[in-house]
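I hope you will forgive my troubling you with a question about protein structure. I should value your view on which stretches of the chain appear to form regular backbone elements. Here, with my thanks, is the record as I have it:
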Amino acid sequence: METEVKLLVVEDKRPDALMVQGALRGAPGNYHCVTVERLAEALALLATPSFDVVLLDLDLPDSQGLLTLEKTLASSSVPVVVLTALDDELTAIRAVQAGAQDYLIKGQCDGALIARALRYAMERKRLQEELQQARRLEAVGRLAGGVAHDFNNLMTVVTGYGDLLAQEAPPDTNVGRWAKSICEAADRAARLTSQLLAVGRRHTLLPSVFDLNPAILDLRDMLKCTARSDIALELELGPEPQRIRADRGQLEQVVVNLVANACDAMPHGGRLILRTATRRLDSRTLCGEQPVESGLYVVFTVADTGYGMDARTRERIFEPFFTTKGPRQGAGLGLATVYGIVKQSGGHISVRSEIGKGSEFTVALPHADGSLGSGSPSLSEEGQMAHRQAALVAQGECRPASRT
């Protein structure tokens, strides 16, 4: 069943309003129309987030011309399509420049054209908002990464002097205990710095070609420890090799973070499903993402049956330091870290969630050619294992930051 589109028709001429409703009944899509005759009525309705799109006449009893459009746009972020009898090219240009998504002339359009204009208006508005969100995340990520880099240099000095002091002072003395506290605090600061570097995409990556399925299976015992006994962990791994080129330790951190996040969303238990598949994606495949380059991708999904998120939370879910938890229950860096790692790895991440219907995080990484294990630096097996373990414990004892 098609999703219902809530349409506000602002039209004071009843025959024209009836024409719109009748035309949309025969057009593709499922429209629920609310009609008002005055701009004041429309602005009152738009004060609440109840509509997906507005179809606006410019000449109303209480407002005329482009001022009608400007007042409407100023009152709400809902996309606006103008439907008017003013067949004037200059007015149309100014309306679009002011922010109208389209400009239609009465008597020159049918239901299919109106429906298409409304659909395109909602899609363009969505893409504009996603681009703004991506730019905001990019700016905050760069700031966080820059601060983390300088902070890391300072903490290196603190750690060094703390270690020297601990070596010189007996552990059972006050100075020894103080030195131990300094070192422990420095370690916590280092873990925070690691998260911030991931957010700012400044981690040093050790990429190689590997199959994501065995990597997830290797983490299964850890994931079971992360999930409580009242959460059913299910793996649905694609039958073919899911080959990607990435830093395995960082991707393992992504998996653990998303699983821990999902577990926090199910305080009373539920189902946690991990899926992998190879899919061909295009610019319209992922929800809540900038357009992706068409091609073959390895898609990893973490779905939960938890309490879900509202639209406002979804918009900010990847922002650094944004959290819905109380004080001392998480720094708000878990999903920001995931976002940074995925982006630095050349991938994409999106989320689908509704209150009461759980959440589904989808990570898409380009499918890799070449033999497994190719492209990695010349590290020993022990060195590569240590690097993966270091990435996993960067959040603290293999338990990443909780739901933001």
